[in-house]
Structure formats: structure tokens, C-alpha cells
Design brief:
Blueprint (H helix, E strand, L loop, with lengths): L4 E6 L2 H9 L8 E4 L6 E4 L1 H4 L9 H7 L4 E3 L3 H16 L4 E6 L2 E5 L9 H16 L3 E6 L2 H11 L4 E3 L2 H8 L12 H9 L5 H6 L2 H8 L2 H9 L15 E12 L2 H21 L2 E12 L4 E11 L2 H15 L6 E9 L2 E2 L11 H17 L14
Parallel strand pairs: 2-4, 7-8
Antiparallel strand pairs: 1-6, 1-7, 2-3, 5-6, 9-12, 10-11, 10-12, 10-13
Helix pairs in contact: 4-5, 10-11, 12-13
């Protein structure tokens, strides 16, 4: 059976959310980001025309587009809107994968027996727009790669259907940069070889690509030829990661427990970033010496940053530890996970802080996850 895979993407999601709250921002260049030393978390199409891009230093963006309206951003609000869109889509499709806070894959295979898949996807997009006010683009094709590239070409607020015979003619004239797995390093390497269009890449011998790029060469060749067998993975908010410690002796040493919680948060956040997850719910569990167990949890804006999540964890511990009794076990759990790029809180983080996390993660990659830990003196009071 031929697959029918749709990719849906909310257009300039953070900017669109802000425009819902303030219509004056419509048709204006808008930058979402924080502080002079911060970076651009998102920007409007009007700002993009001046060369502004996500993750660009804010001061550089303002030199390119001095007229831009700069908004600090509100990840809690954006997370709420993301959950709302998720619920709308989830109600209408058999299989939905939430790829990030603003991006979704739908597997509509077999539904053409009952509905036209393209018409059905159009109606879902219209339902999102009607119920949230947020603009959304989509493309429908036979696999995830082609539909994702198609959505990029359909934006803003566009839609596209790519049937099997139309796939290669559609891909051929596009830049190899449009292929999701092609980053700056791969693009530079291919450019030096004179490979700038997908058509050229698609016609290269696969063994040559493998020799040049390594194990990803075959995968890249497949994508250039419109081949992608990756399934749409059913989304579930219940997915979680967790860790816990049982003390050798029951303890009431609160500073030490806080230090252990800090280490747990660092370990889990590193795992989040390695696997490209963001969390939206955190919880702390304690077990007293008499085996009574208590848990506290709270919703957070999607993030994978240690310093952000540690504040919540220590606050939850303060709330959950209500008896003057010794503790036998402590645990930390992150749930409500969605895939996303290493998206720390770009509205608060400076270039230096983002760079620091990237450097720390590289060191952990090389020397092990526990090779670098936060000094206990830096714990949030």
C-alpha cells in the first residue's frame, strides 16, 4: 500500500502567537529574543527579508533590521498553544508524531478509501486556524522527508500535494540545503565538489557519497532520490525519562540531598539534549524512612536546560518535603517530552550561556556524562 504522510508546520510559531495577543504586530518585522547579549529565538517573514535568522545574535539582527519590534518571548504561553494545536490534530488522525513544539507528521495511509487524504489534511489545517488563529502550512506525499521539504516550499500559510511521479521533478532544482539532514559542514563539503542541487546529488554513485560523508552517505542519497522509509511514530505525552537514588542510610542532610538532585537534573538534561528532547512536566519523588512516598510535579515551558529545570526541581523538593523525617529515596522525572532542537530558553539565554552548554556537552560526549558536574555552591538558594 502506498503511504500517505503529511507534514504540518506552524508558520513562524512564536511570532504568530504574539500577533494573536497584539494585532499591531501584523505585517511588521518582529524578532523574538531577549537582552542585548541574547539571540534570535524566532522572527517574522518581514524580518527574514532583511537577513535576520534564528539563533543569530540579537545585536546583529538589529543592525540588519533596526525597525524590528523586539519581544522577549513567553515560552509558557507558546507551550500552551502548542498543546492546544496537538489536541486538535490528535483528535482527527489515527497516527500523529509531534516532531517539535510546532511541527507534526501525520500518517494517513489507507484513509483515501474513506476520504481524500489531501482534502482531509486541508480540513485539519483549517480546524487549527479556526480554533487557534495560528497559520499553518502542510505538504502531503509518500514519506516524511519529501513532505517536510514540501512544507518548507509551501510556506507561508500554504499547502502542497506531491504524488509519486511529481516527487523527483519537485526535488531536483532545490538546493541540497533543503534536505533535513544537511547541515553547514555537509553543505560546504558538497559545495566544494560542485554539488549544490538535489538533482546532482541524486545522480551521484552511492558508494562515492559513502566514501566522502561516511555512514550517512547512503541515507543522504536516498533522501535526494525521495526515498524515506522512516515510520511516523505515535506521539504520547506519557513518554518520560527518570532517575532515582536510594541512600545507604536514611538521611536528613538537606544540602547533600539538594546537591544530589542537582546532579540528577544535569544527568537527565544531558540525556534530553543528546536525544533531542524537550520536557514540559517535571516531578520530584521522595520516600521517607517509614516507606511513605510522596510526589510533586509541575508544568514547565518546553526546555532542556539544566539551570531552568533545576529551579523547578529544588522548588518542588521544598514543597514535597513537609515532615521532619529522614529520607530513604529521592527521584526526578521528566515527562511530556517532545522532540526539538537543542532549544533552551532562547528568550533568556545569552550567546555565552548557549555556547557554555554546547562546550559542556562536547566534554561529556568525550569523557563521559559524569565527567563534568555543577559545583554545589551554584545551587539555587
Amino acid at each position: 500500500m502506498e503511504r500517505a504522510i503529511a507534514h504540518m508546520d506552524l508558520d513562524t510559531f512564536f511570532v504568530s502567537c504574539e500577533r494573536l495577543r497584539d494585532s499591531v504586530l501584523e505585517n511588521q518585522p518582529v524578532i523574538i529574543g531577549g537582552g542585548d547579549r541574547g539571540v534570535v529565538a524566532s522572527c517574522s517573514y518581514e524580518a527574514m527579508k532583511f537577513g535576520v535568522r534564528s539563533a543569530m545574535p540579537l545585536r546583529m539582527a538589529l543592525r540588519l533590521c533596526p525597525e524590528a519590534q523586539v519581544i522577549k518571548g513567553d515560552m509558557e504561553y507558546y507551550s500552551k498553544m502548542s498543546h492546544l494545536v496537538t489536541e486538535i490534530i490528535q483528535e482527527k488522525v489515527p497516527v500523529m508524531e509531534k516532531a517539535s513544539v510546532d511541527e507534526f507528521y501525520l500518517d494517513l495511509s489507507g484513509m483515501d478509501k474513506f476520504f481524500g487524504c489531501y482534502q482531509w489534511t486541508t480540513e485539519i489545517a483549517e480546524a487549527v486556524k479556526k480554533n487557534t488563529g495560528l497559520p499553518i502550512s502542510f505538504a502531503l506525499s509518500t514519506n516524511k522527508t519529501v513532505s517536510k521539504i514540501g512544507t518548507g516550499e509551501a510556506k507561508p500559510a500554504g499547502k502542497l500535494e506531491l504524488k509519486p511521479l511529481a516527487i523527483q521533478p519537485f526535488l531536483n532544482p532545490l538546493s541540497v540545503r533543503k534536505i533535513p539532514m544537511v547541515g553547514d559542514v555537509t553543505f560546504e563539503l558538497l559545495s566544494r565538489l560542485g554539488v549544490r542541487k538535489i538533482e546532482t546529488l541524486a545522480k551521484m554513485p552511492v558508494d562515492v557519497l559513502q566514501e566522502l560523508i561516511g555512514k550517512n552517505g547512503t541515507e543522504l542519497w536516498k533522501k535526494a532520490n525521495g526515498i524515506d522509509l522512516n515510520p511516523v511514530i505515535q506521539y504520547s505525552e506519557r513518554k518520560s525519562i527518570s532517575t532515582e537514588t536510594t541512600f545507604s542510610e536514611d538521611t536528613i542532610d538537606i544540602p547533600n540531598i539538594r546537591s544530589i538532585l542537582s546532579g540528577m537534573v544535569e544527568q537527565l538534561c544531558y540525556q534530553l539534549r543528546q536525544e533531542k528532547w524537550l520536557t514540559s512536566t517535571v516531578s520530584v519523588r521522595i520516600r521517607y524512612a517509614n516507606f511513605d512516598t510522596e510526589t510533586k510535579q509541575c508544568k514547565v515551558a518546553y526546555t532542556s536546560a539544566d539551570h531552568t529545570l533545576l529551579k523547578y526541581i529544588l522548588e518542588l523538593f521544598k514543597k514535597v518535603y513537609t515532615r521532619r523525617m529522614r529520607i530513604r529515596l529521592v527521584g526526578v522525572k521528566f515527562t511530556g517530552l517532545v522532540h526539538g532542537s537543542h532549544q533552551m530558553n532562547l528568550f533568556e539565554d545569552t550567546e555565552e550561556l548557549i555556547s557554555l552548554y554546547q562546550t559542556m556537552d562536547k566534554m561529556k560526549d568525550r569523557f563521559g556524562a559524569k565527567s563534568l558536574v555543577r559545583a554545589s555552591g551554584f545551587l539555587t538558594q
